[in-house]
């Protein structure tokens, strides 16, 4: 994707301009980011998904049994039949993993790393429906799918911002409105992390949230050090072979800190392990049970492809690749593989994985490492046959 071509999605800004001026900084309203936008899913289909065990869904009722009542799915038909006329919202997470036409929307966001994308959440609201004024710690593109939603944006927040006392929902106690817009189908609003926002349905409306993910510093530290510690033998310890006689045996001297800092720096600075951990962490699937493998041999795989079978990325799998020296690392659903540099184009093809078929794979299937890789990814469940 050329970063200097103006994009309708970004209201005529180029990806480079958008990233420079708006991304993680300030909101951007784009009228008709998608012209003649037709929602690929309707409210009934969304409600249907919320009946499924494997799909994460929530209902927020402004005037339920208590103010801002949160109900968690899966739901049943009766739950929907007994909802009031207005002031409620049904939210369904990761619809892109279940509806391919929704996943296709993500193609428009390819100017950002795919491993930064979390999911496409879709909400359906009755008139007046809202989840209350709040902030998220993530970037989000809010695309109006159907009906009209009024969006207000407010102040920048942080973990000190006052919230209503509520066991499950993080609703802001104070909202200092700065701007307000009504979004029609095809309009889109980008919000940076921590900006207060408050969306209220003006009629029956569907809103798509393309949400991003960024690990917290606390997550990076705990998960990376956990990962690192697997490689550290027990005998590797704080050591002070350079110790000098102490003047007060009860004092912790700063030379002890220097030794600790050196120990930390040695391991924390291991770029290869950091990359391996990060790739694995960022490709961990949201629903691991949806990444189920297929026990097939290399011969069976080639037979199927020769008979016209097409492989695609499992919509629940996450894929990414990187370079280490002359080699490559492929990350697939939380696992990593070190591969020789000549497989670079295969890795790119696999990560894009719109359709892998005998024509674009033929050369790679003749390569021992290439063939084994494709087969392992099918066995692991990151790739699957399109018609299954
Ligand atoms: C919604 O779609 O109702 C809420 C989305 C959000 O504010 O994050
Ligand atoms: Co939000």
TrEMBL record:
<dbReference type="GO" id="GO:0016706">
    <property type="term" value="F:2-oxoglutarate-dependent dioxygenase activity"/>
</dbReference>
<dbReference type="Pfam" id="PF08007">
    <property type="entry name" value="JmjC_2"/>
</dbReference>
<dbReference type="InterPro" id="IPR003347">
    <property type="entry name" value="JmjC_dom"/>
</dbReference>
<keyword id="KW-0560">Oxidoreductase</keyword>
<dbReference type="InterPro" id="IPR046799">
    <property type="entry name" value="ROXA-like_wH"/>
</dbReference>
<keyword id="KW-0689">Ribosomal protein</keyword>
<keyword id="KW-0223">Dioxygenase</keyword>
<dbReference type="GO" id="GO:0046872">
    <property type="term" value="F:metal ion binding"/>
</dbReference>
<feature type="domain" description="JmjC">
    <location>
        <begin position="101"/>
        <end position="229"/>
    </location>
</feature>
<keyword id="KW-0408">Iron</keyword>
<protein>
    <submittedName>
        <fullName>50S ribosomal protein L16 3-hydroxylase</fullName>
        <ecNumber>1.14.11.47</ecNumber>
    </submittedName>
</protein>
<keyword id="KW-0687">Ribonucleoprotein</keyword>
<dbReference type="Pfam" id="PF20514">
    <property type="entry name" value="WHD_ROXA"/>
</dbReference>
<dbReference type="GO" id="GO:0005840">
    <property type="term" value="C:ribosome"/>
</dbReference>
<keyword id="KW-0479">Metal-binding</keyword>
<dbReference type="InterPro" id="IPR039994">
    <property type="entry name" value="NO66-like"/>
</dbReference>
